[in-house]
Every structure is written in structure tokens, then in C-alpha cells.
Q: What sequence folds into this?
């Protein structure tokens, strides 16, 4: 799945060690989607991808995400994890998604249509 929007906040990085003794790191960001009814989504990035993606507040991004829920002590917890970041595919609104169109009429050339 993909999620597009603007990074509006960066939360404190969290780290620790798993039961098996492996070190882990997690960085969470708040992404605000566009549209008539914008939504705020907390997105987590794990491990080395934190440095690889280097997200900054104010950036427009499109994220490849996985949504996962797990149960702990009778309660369910849902996490949105980003595995891919695309800075070029983010749109800045409906106006930027409409390409410029050149005129099809030219006085100096004959009709070049193949049919």
C-alpha cells in the first residue's frame, strides 16, 4: 500500500534490546494526507532505514507501507511501518498533477497525423 502526504512532526527515536539480545531502533513520524479531509497518520521506520530515508519535517513524500496488528494481553495494537520512500512521486495538490499541453496547431507545418 502507499500513503502520500507531508511530514508534519518527528517523534523521539526509541531503541532497546530484544529478548534475544539484538539491538533495535524505531523512529516515528506524523504524516498528514492531502485532500478535502486530511488525516494524520503515525508511521514507524525501523533500524537502518531511519538513516537511509532521513525524513525531514515539511517534506512531501509517498511511502510504501505495511499495516500490521498484534494482540497483547487481550488488546490489539496496530502499527503502520514504512519500507520505501519516494520523494519524487509526491504531489503538491491537484494543479501539479495536470501536465502542460502544447498546442496541436502549427501554421508552418502540414498535418502530421498518421491517419
A:
Amino acid at each position: 500500500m502507499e500513503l502520500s502526504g507531508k511530514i508534519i512532526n518527528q517523534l523521539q527515536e526509541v531503541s532497546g534490546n530484544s529478548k534475544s539480545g539484538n539491538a533495535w531502533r524505531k523512529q516515528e513520524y506524523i504524516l498528514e494526507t492531502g485532500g478535502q479531509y486530511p488525516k494524520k497518520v503515525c508511521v514507524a521506520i525501523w533500524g537502518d532505514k531511519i538513516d537511509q530515508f532521513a525524513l525531514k519535517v515539511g517534506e512531501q513524500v509517498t511511502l510504501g507501507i505495511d499495516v500490521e496488528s498484534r494482540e497483547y494481553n487481550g488488546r490489539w495494537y496496530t502499527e503502520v511501518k514504512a519500507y520505501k520512500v519516494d520523494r519524487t512521486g509526491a504531489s503538491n495538490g491537484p494543479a501539479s498533477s495536470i501536465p502542460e499541453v502544447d498546442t496541436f496547431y502549427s501554421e508552418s507545418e502540414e498535418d502530421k497525423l498518421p491517419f
Summary: The chain has a mean pLDDT of 85. The longest helix spans residues 49-53.
